């Protein structure tokens, strides 16, 4: 069967009630940025310093960050309202693949690898093997496209998240009882697209749902090698 010239995955959600954003485009650059994933929880007393560190990365060129709040602390006194079993599952799926031997909090993963050193690694300047682009249409639809470049693997995994900044929680129970925690780059939605072979240009329509009032959304898209999670490219678009 002949492959179509364009692979389309429709993930359409009603736009009613979604935040109003101007039309815009965002295209990935020639090099792979530093993608920072933080696995954290409001119920974990060791996590607030990591949360503050992640916030310090805001605005740094060549850095894209996402905070996944896991749910396995929820039964120990304080349910984290940002947590999801899907984020816990994502962390567990990375065990072994990213070099970690177990899931823990706070965990930092940089470009698909468990990272336990202070600060961030220097930008590698590695040339991207996938080109990613976001396009926000005048009608509010959000489109993601991908093209395989030289050296791209045969199976590529693309995932996207919607994140929000400037959140604050007054914790009333658990290990952080009495603390006021501040969060940025908080993942509020997460989805993995079907594995893509890169032979034809990929295009997907991503759901645009209403963010929490007072917290503008950003959408991040990441392409990885489906075999080992190596980050091939990442790009974000704001509202």
Outline the structure in words:
This protein has 239 residues and is mainly beta. The protein has one domain. 8% of the residues lie in helices and 37% in strands. It is built from 2 helices and 15 strands. The chain has helices spanning 47-55, 85-94; strands at residues 7-10, 24-27, 34-40, 63-69, 107-110, 113-114, 130-136, 142-148, 156-164, 167-170, 180-183, 186-192, 202-206, 217-225, 231-238. The strands form 4 sheets. The chain has a 5-stranded mixed β-sheet with strand order 1-13-8-7-2, with no helix packed on it. Strands 4-3-5-6 form a 4-stranded mixed β-sheet. The longest helix is centred in the middle third of the chain and has 10 residues, at 85-94. It is globular. The termini are far apart. Residues 1-17 have low confidence and may be disordered.
SSE blueprint and pairings:
Elements: E1 7-10, E2 24-27, E3 34-40, H1 47-55, E4 63-69, H2 85-94, E5 107-110, E6 113-114, E7 130-136, E8 142-148, E9 156-164, E10 167-170, E11 180-183, E12 186-192, E13 202-206, E14 217-225, E15 231-238
Parallel strand pairs: 1-13, 3-4
Antiparallel strand pairs: 2-7, 3-5, 5-6, 7-8, 8-13, 9-12, 9-14, 10-11, 14-15
